[in-house]
Amino acid sequence: MPYYNHIKFYVENIARGIYPLWDPSCSWGGGPNEFFLRRIGEFNPFFGLIVLLVKAGFSYTSAYFVFLAVYYFIGLLGFFKLAEHLFRETNVACLAYLLLMFSSWGTKLFDTYINLIFVPMVWFFYFVLAFSRKPERIFFLGLTFTLMIIVTTYLPFYFMTVLLTFFLCVVLFYFKDLKIVFSSWVVFFKRDKALMILCSLALLLALLPGVLLYTQGFQGEIVLPGRHFESALRNEMALDMKEIQVGGIIIPEILEGLFSNLHEMRLNRFYMPVFVYILFLIGALIKMNKRLIFLLTLFSCVLLIGLTDAAPAVQFLYKYIFYFKYFRNFNYFLWFVLLPVFILMCAEHLRLFLSNGLKDKKSQYRAVVLSAGLHMGLAVFLSRQENSLISSYWVVGLSFVLFTFLFLKKINFQHPSIPLILIGFVALQPLQVYQALERNADVVEYPYEYDRPYLNFVYFKGNNPEKLVMDWPIADESVARTRLKMYYGLNTIQFLLENIQGDIFEEYMRFKFIVYDHVAYMDDKNISLSKIEKAWAQNRNIAFVSSASVLLDEVGPVAGEGATARVMTKDTLEFQVIKFDMNSIKLKTNFSSRKFLVYNDNFHSGWQAFVDGKRVDIARANVAFKGLWLEPGERMVCFRYGTWGRYFLGYLLSAVFMGVLASLVVLWFRSRPCALKESAL
Amino acid sequence: MSAARVHEKTLTGKSLMDLGRHVARQGIVVYLLLFLLFHWIVDYERLEIKTLNRATPLSFEYLTKTAEAHESFDKKKLKEFFLYFKTVTHYRPDMADAVGMLGFCYYHLGDSQKAMEAYQKAIDLNPSFFWFHYNLGVIYFQKGRYEEAIKVLRRALKTDPLKTVEFILSSRIYLPLISKDKEKWAEAVTGQIEKTYQKCYGMLVLGYYYLGKPADLINVANYAVARRFADLEMFYYYMGLSAYQLKEYEKALYFLKECVRVNPVNAEAFRYLGLSLKSLGNQEVGDKMIKKAEILHDDQGSPVSFEKKIELGMF
């Protein structure tokens, strides 16, 4: 389940009143959580549904499933509204909705996160269309809200690409109309200055977390070896062209899987109900309109981008547009752009064909003959495919009957009963396909990281400090393999993973707190791995720090060879953990002599330490961890991650998102009576 | 130019423009043009490589470990590899190694017919590779098509083991299936080929036995015995049996004695030994042997035990 972990981590912490900017429990010894928060878009108010369901007694997994399903149907509703606005025919919109719902789009919920991008994106385009036709507050607010979600969720670059392509197509095909649209917008902005300013401010505010993450990429503390592997760019988020090429749309694979061996349906396979191909073939018989050509151009442009290195578009864009260096998995365009646009095109085919008159008997019979040929052709084509499903032929046969009735005006496509008939047509084949999917689906026992207890502090990994089952990834002989293991983390821990002997590293990392008497300086440029390995293997009473200033003031004599460091395994009179959450830890110490405390949670410049309320510097100890000197006697020590400003921004944005959504809902309900009145008129 | 001619020309130009516009807006024309445009823009070779890369399983460990352990394959898991080899053969139909592996997958997925077709195609593409002949021979043998099995296995025996090893080491398909240490692996596979060559002889012997060709059987088995192949007991047993059927009781006696010397609990060998002795007039000892056979009730040396050992090589 995509993002199950990240969303769980966020939701569980936020439910406890903690805004989790740091994740001490992640496999790499703790790290900033900003990257994963950006992935899920933590300000999305719909995550509140999970919190509510969990509070109501649902298990997190069930709550998460409910959220996924609800969010998915919100997206589908957006698609329906968009199609309705586009075609101005409810039954055509309904057909488009059914085709999307019964495509394999729904199965993506359990495979990737693209639902989180698709839902706000589809609503954005609905609001754009609606606002262009009728500049109203609700649409503008909707535009703002969806944009806010988009810019805070995963990478807004997919959306930017679609938006730019969309805009390009609009300029190409609706240039004359743009003037009218813009002038109506200007009138609206003049009339609703306050709303415009507030929305702009909210949007700017929503952009901040993304910008912060982008700048973090330059600081060099965070590393993403799996992504950044071969990139020459300084920003750690950047990708090499080779990485981008990997995830393109593979047309032959898709085409191969569309018709044949559907009984072998698996998750992640692209699939559309067979009825869509009938509608597509109708396209050969119609006279195209501007809207259809617009959709076709949009589809083609995005497809060219999605093909990555199999077409020249991406190479050009990678070179000249900066953000193309920061995202990959271009095959997702297939799901959240090409699939819905293709369905809209097919729906438009039908609408155009039916609206072309067919007034006289001659043209009606001609349409029936053409339809017969078309259906026959499709049936023959299906029969030539490997293991075609029987339901495919049923759909083709029934479709011919439906179209014959439609062409001969025996039934009217606008009739209210049509959606019910369409459900049957569209769903017949998918039912057989999804039955196969259920049969073929692999049951994978995936170990979800946050299904294990992680919210409370433990002194050591596992249950027994004497004998521990480690889940720490072992740095093996192959650096490349280690790199692949580490997707995201801090540069220092990556260095250790790649260089320190695996078993020694594991043993050292078992414990969260180690107390030393002595400290030695170790230059970052000249790290003696053998010295560290020896010290860790023998648990020597010496820590290594990378800051000379710590030593100048505080270093004790490196003596007492053979003496071991003290590993803290439980609360004692000398050492107690008073408070712990994801972002901070509070300790009470009462040592008899001065000690150097190493907290085996990764060092990051965002951490602050306070001893008896006074801020002290944290030294980077043992290459990757946090360390500080503690004077004898009773001390209150606090480590805290992040600035108040960052927390404030997080809570502020959460409130703003909630506020905008609430306003949107209120406006929606207020506008309903007007809309009903208008439709009645 | 007269006004009428100008008017006529304008009209013709206008109607041509209208016609062009009309044609250009026809769905079929637009889609065809778009298709041609994509055909021109898209790098198909690149697309093919991407398709192949995408289809490549992340790990071949399941395939190699299951084959090494002589366990039966989980069809669901095998399907992933099957789809990979199918994709490879779709784009590279001349890759004998991929075609062979597709045959291997078909066989373990239960489609012997398609497996035979694949191996035949692999043989056509690379007739000097031992395993394609052998695997096809095994399938024919298991299907009871002994004539064809013998024909294919005889061709397998004519292949050069060195060429087989060379082909494996140069193959991109076998690369993830073989061990990292190529030299060691080559050594091991050479030994494996040698053993499988010997199995070919075993299958030939059985094939001739089932076809009722004792003279051919004795010829093949003699060769195997002279080279001290494994399964000596089986070779002696069938030679004894064939000699008995040919009523060459002296020879039968010799072969069956050798057989029970290798395996002193081979009940069937004792029975035929007894029968041969009786045929030679030695009733008393013959009866003794037959009685011993009844006591042993052992199926050692029976065709079934050897047939159980026959399986496809992972090629």
The fraction of residues assigned to DSSP E strands of chain A is 5-15%
Enumerate how many helices of chain B there are, as a single number: 17
Q: Tell me about the biggest sheet of chain B?
A: none
Mean pLDDT score of chain A, rounded? 88
Structural category of chain B is mainly alpha
The ordered H/E elements of chain B are: HHHHHHHHHHHHHHHHH
So how many helices of chain A?
26
Please report which band the strand proportion of chain B falls in: under 5%, 5-15%, 15-25%, 25-35%, 35-45% or over 45%: under 5%
Provide a concise account of the structure shown.
The complex is a heterodimer of chains A (681) and B (315). Helix content of chain A is 56%, strand content 10%.
Q: Overview of this structure, please?
A:
The complex is a heterodimer of chains A (681) and B (315). Chain A contains 26 helices and 16 strands. In chain A, strands 8-5-11-15-14 form a five-stranded antiparallel beta sheet, with no helix packed on it. Chain A starts with a helix and ends with a helix. Chain B folds into two domains: 44-211, Serine Threonine Protein Phosphatase 5, Tetratricopeptide repeat, CATH 1.25.40.10; 214-314, Tetratricopeptide repeat domain (Serine Threonine Protein Phosphatase 5, Tetratricopeptide repeat, Alpha Horseshoe). Chain B has 17 helices and no strands. The model of chain B has no long low-confidence stretch (mean pLDDT 87).
